[in-house]
Amino acid sequence: MDRRPTIYDVAQAAGVAASTVSRAFARPGRVKAETARRIFEAAEALGYRTTALPGLVSRRTRTLALVVTDITNPFYGDIIRGAHEAAHELGYTLLLSHTQEDAQLERDWTERELTAVEGVLLTSSRMSDSAIRMMAKQKPVVVLNRRLPEVPSILVDNARGIRRAVEHLTELGHDAVTYVAGPESSWTDGARWLALREAAHELDIRVRRIGPCNNPTVHAGFGRAREVVTTSSTAVIAYNDAVAIGVVKGLTRLGVPVPEAVSVVGFDNTLLSEIIEPELTTVAAPLQAMGATAVKNLVAMIGGAVPSREPIIMPVRLVVRRSTGQRSRNRVSPALGTRNVSSSASAAARSTESGSR
Amino acid sequence: MDRRPTIYDVAQAAGVAASTVSRAFARPGRVKAETARRIFEAAEALGYRTTALPGLVSRRTRTLALVVTDITNPFYGDIIRGAHEAAHELGYTLLLSHTQEDAQLERDWTERELTAVEGVLLTSSRMSDSAIRMMAKQKPVVVLNRRLPEVPSILVDNARGIRRAVEHLTELGHDAVTYVAGPESSWTDGARWLALREAAHELDIRVRRIGPCNNPTVHAGFGRAREVVTTSSTAVIAYNDAVAIGVVKGLTRLGVPVPEAVSVVGFDNTLLSEIIEPELTTVAAPLQAMGATAVKNLVAMIGGAVPSREPIIMPVRLVVRRSTGQRSRNRVSPALGTRNVSSSASAAARSTESGSR
DNA sequence: CTGAAAGCGCTAACAG
DNA sequence: CTGTTAGCGCTTTCAG
Predict the structure, then answer these.
(1) What residues of chain B, 105 to 144, have a C-beta less than 8 Å from chain A?
(2) B56 band by pLDDT with thresholds 50, 70 and 90
(3) What is the pTM of this model?
C-alpha cells in the first residue's frame, strides 16, 4: 500500500470499526483502554498519523492565524516566538501573515484565511474597529496592543511605562519632552501620546509631538532628528526603539550629543536597544509572555471559555541605560548643534569604562 | 440563511449543477463564459467565497510550511517577508514554524504538519541530510542556506562573499584573520569557514577559527571577544552580523578599538549592522529575493515542474562601512587591550563627522 | 459543455 | 463501550 493509511486501514488491522479508531484518537477515554491499546498498536504498525487536515465535519483545523504588521520589526520577533511556543504546546499551528502596515492587505488576507483557522490573533492591527468587531463575531479573536470594547485584548501598560519614563526624565531635571510619534493608525501610538500628556500635566512639564512615523523604523526616526532639535526640548520619548535609535543616530549626526544635550527614551526594549551607542533607555514589556498569553486566551475561547471584558494589561518596567542623562545647563540652540570635541571625548571615555551590561 | 453559502447554494441560485459551480471556480475555461458569468454573479450575490479548506478530494491546501530556526533573528525577517509576499501573490498561505535551533523540534513539527501543506521551505535547517531527503520524497521541499544533493536549494554565494571580505581585508594590510564560527550544525557555517580557508590559502594569509556559537547572537559574539584578542589576529570575520556585533562590543569593552586595532566583518547586512558603532562592514545577500525565489520554486514544483539539480546561488556584495580599517602597525598584545584615551577620543570625533549613511 | 453520482477521511448521532 | 450510518463541501469520473 502506498497511500497514507487511513482510520479504515487501522480499524481493519485492529479488528474494530473506523469510528472507534476515530474516537480513540479524537477523544481519549471514550474507548476501553484495552481496545485503545490495540488500535494504537495497529496504527503504529501501519504508520498511521492523525491528519492535521480538518475533517470537513469538525471544523477543528487546530490552526490559528497570527497577523502582524511587519515581520521585519524585531518587536514582533519575541511576540511571535511566545505565541508560537504556546501554540505548539497546545497543539495548534500558526498561520502567519504580515501586512506591511497596510490595513487593506490585512482585511483581504484575513478574510481569505478566516475559514481555515479556529481563531485569530491580531497584533497591532491597523484595521478599523468595526472591521475587527465584525470579524470577532465570526471567530474568536484576540487583539494585541489595541483596545476595543467587546474584543478581548492584551495591552502593555503604556500609561505606566510612559509615566515611569517621564518621572525618570524629571528626576534628571528635564522639563520639556518631545514625543516622536509612530503610525497614525496605531492604537498604541495614541495611547502613548495620551499617557504622555497626562503625565506631563501631573508632573508639570511641557510636551510636544512630532511625527507621525507611519513606518516606525530607524530610518524614520533618523529623519526626525532635525525637528527634534528645533523643538528645543532636552528629552525625547519615541514611539518605539527603532524610532528612538533613529533619533539618536540623527542627533549624533547633527552634532547633538546624546545624552549630554538631549536624552532619548525608547519603547519595547528590543535587542536593538543594546546595540546602539549609547545604549538606549527604554520601556520593557514582556513580549514573549504577551504572545503566549494571547494564544492561551484564544485557545481558551475556542474551547468555549468566555473571555473577560477587561483587557489584560501586561506590566512594564523602565530599563535605564545610557541614552538618558542629567539635563544640561544650556539647551541646544534651535537648529544648531553645540557639540564640540571635548564633549565627545568625554562621552567616548565614558563609553570605554562602562561598556554594555 | 446564516451558514456560509456553499457551491450548492450558488448552483441553485444560478440554476446549474453544483459540479458546474465547482468547475467554474476550480478550472476556468472548462465552463461556457456565459454560464460562468451567471455563476459568479450568483456567488457574488450570496457572498460565496471559495473555501481555503482543503476539499478532502483535492489535497490542495494552498498552504506552504516555512520553517526557520529562530524568528527572533533579524536575518530571517527579510527572508520571511519575501517568502510571504511571493506566497501571497501566488495564492498561497504560510504556515510558520520556528524551531529554536533544535533539530528534534524541527523534525517533530515538520512531521506533524506535513500533511497539511503542499510544500515545505526549510530555512537553515538543522535537520540531518537524510531526514530532509526523506521528507523531500513525500512533498516538494526547497532548502535555503544548505546544499544537499537531490533537494533543490537556494544558497547565498558564501564563497564569493568571504572572498570579497578577505580581499578587502588584505587590501587594508591584514594578513591574519580569525573566523568566529556559528552553529556547528549549520551548513552555512561550514561553507563560510571552508571558503575562508581557501581564500586564505590563495591570498596567502593566516586564518584561525574560534567558536562555535551555537546560538549565533550578539551575546555569543560578545563572549568570544577575549578569545579574539588572544589570537592576535588584526581582523575577524564572523559567522553573521549578530556575532560580529557582539565581537565589536566585546572588543570595545576590553579596550580594543575597532577598527583601529582589529577590523571586524559581519555577514548578512541585517538592519543591526547600521546601528552598531562603528557601523559594520558586512556581506550583503538579497534576503527578500531569496525568500521570494524559494517560494516561487516551491510552487512551481507543486505545479509539477522539475526543479533544477543545481542549486540557485544568490549574488552577494560587500558593504564596506567603518568596522574595517587599515591594519595598525602593532598588533594588539595578547590578552591585553591597548586602548587609551587619545585613541578613543579620535574615534569618537570621527564618529561625529561621518555619521551613518 | 454540463449533470448525476460517487466518494475523499473523518466525526457524530443513534442504536445497540 | 462500540458498530452503523449518514453526511461535511468539494472534485471528479462518467455519461450525456
Answers:
(1) 109, 111-113, 115-116
(2) low
(3) 0.82
